[in-house]
Each structure stands twice: as C-alpha cells, then as structure tokens.
Amino acid sequence: MTAPRILYCHCAYAKVVPEETKQEVLGRLSASGLPFEAVTDLCEMAARKDPALERLADGGPTKIAACFPRAVKWLFFGAGFPISDDGVEVLNMREAPADEIVSGLLGEVEV
Fold first, then answer.
1. pLDDT by residue (tens digit) across 4-24?
2. Domain CATH for 52
3. Is residue 59 within 8 Å of 35, Cβ to Cβ?
C-alpha cells in the first residue's frame, strides 16, 4: 500500500487558523523527514484557478492539513479540479489542536 501524500496549507491570507497551530504542524512535519508539499494558501490558489491544483487533486491517497474539509473540497471543485472523496482526508487546523493534526498526518511514523 502506498503511503498517502501530505499537503500542508499555510492559510496565509485568511488568518483563520491559529498561527501557533500552523507553526507547530509545519515544524513537526519538517522534522519528520517525510516528504510533504506546502502551499501558501489553497483559497488564493483556487481563486486564481492555479493549474498546480490539478496536480494536487490527482495524486491518489492524500492527507491535507488546512481548514474545514467541505471548504477544501469546494475550493478544488470551484477551481475545476475536484478531489476524490475516496482516499482524501482533510484535517481541520482551524478547530483541532496541532497534536491531533500531526497525529492524523503522520500516524505511526510520528517523530
């Protein structure tokens, strides 16, 4: 079984995710040594219909650290690159603590 891809959104423009949560999640992802992709802001990318979203949407099993799952799915859909409900998990940094997000992203391989 292929390990899921990890996508981290820094939610830089909306300022709706607590800064300390973003910093801790990003720091622990970096320290894990696992590959992950970080983007500045999925909302901004969707508003511009950034073609990079197509690549991000077409990657098989994926774990996304961002905000509300339905919002993230609608961002991709609205940009023209819907993500599958199958194999994609969105972790809500807006409401969950950093420990829960990191555990969801890294699972058994957490460092």
1. 999 999 999 988 999 999 999
2. 3.40.50
3. no
